[in-house]
Amino acid sequence: MVERQTLFARIVPHVVLIIGVCIVAFPVYLALLASTYDAATVQNGRMTLLPGNQMIENYERIIFSGTNSTTREPVGTMLLNSFIMAMVIALGKISISLISAYAIVFFRFPFRMAAFWLIFVTLMLPVEVRIYPTYKIVADLQLLDTYTGLTLPLIASATATLLFRQFFMTVPEELVEASKIDGAGPYKFFKDTLLPLSVTTMAALFVIQFIYGWNQYLWPLLITTRDNMQTIVIGIKKMIVTSDALTEWQLAMATAVLALLPPVVVVVLMQKLFVKGLVETEK
Q: Which helix (H) or strand (E) holds 214?
């Protein structure tokens, strides 16, 4: 017998959800409001809950000119740098992890599991732990202030390898045997069978790794010395100086709003594949 929910039981979850959304969204709304006012209004705390009249001027200045004080590079350049870094890291992690997981699951060679566990152990060694030797290698290879230096040390992923391995282990053995009977070699089986099956898993990992690359702070801070190579996260930090009187808060808030857009767009566009990929990986 199915019990009917009361009106109160149906309303309460929605009310709690709406309150949670408001709590999360209100700081973002304040940042958007601050980006539409002039510096004096923001610094004196005279903002209202309605947008100001300086939105076009603030965004045009920050995208094409920069602040001319703490950071001289336009935000458009910083957004491009962050986008390139996030895309290369996400696609690189997926590509390398696909190949390594494929080798571990479908090939039989000595020390196969030892290789997997060596990859898995690197989860305990994030870039912050190995920051000095990594920086030394990048500097010796003259990769400072380059996209290669920004992305290459962060491109391997034990997490992605683990997820692809778990997914590949769910592939029926009959499918592998059928591919062999059809004359498919290792490359053809990988390209025509495994890749199509892995689309949702790749989509889920792409969202996670793109946001990971986009939010990187410590590594870009270390290896970038030129303004035209700094990322959007570094740009926001440089705009917020020690003295409040010197911080152009309306420009910092405009930059923060622009920095939110690419990750939000990626999550919105790939939401269905993201959820489906995580569910299938768990199975």
A: helix 199-214
- What is the structure's pLDDT at 72? 66
Question: pLDDT tens-digit profile of 81-125?
Answer: 999 999 999 999 999 999 999 988 888 888 888 888 888 888 777
Is 78 domain-assigned? yes
Beta carbons of 200 and 282 less than 8 angstroms apart: no
Ramachandran class of 36: left when φ > 0, alpha when ψ lies in -120 to 50, beta otherwise: alpha
Rounded CA-CA distance 223/139 in Å is 8
Whole-number Å distance between alpha carbons of 190 and 173: 14
Q: Which distant-in-sequence residues (6+ apart) come within 8 Å of 253 by Cβ?
A: 31, 32, 34, 35, 42
Q: Residue 205 is part of a domain; what is its CATH number? A: 1.10.3720.10
The answer to whether 102 and 176 are in contact (CB under 8 A) is: no
Q: Where are the alpha helices (DSSP H) in 48-157?
A: 55-64, 75-106, 112-121, 131-140, 147-151
Place of tokens 């500097």: 139
33-59 pLDDT, tens digit each: 999 988 888 888 788 888 888 888 888
Could you tell me which of 68, 65, 89 has the C-alpha nearest to residue 77?
65
Tally of domains within the chain: 1
Structure tokens at 166: 């778990």
pTM of the full structure: 0.86
**CB-based contacts of 264: which residues, under 8 Å, 6+ apart?**
none
Domain that holds residue 105: 7-282
Torsional sign, CA 182, 188, 190, 191: negative
Tokens in use for 281?
């990986």
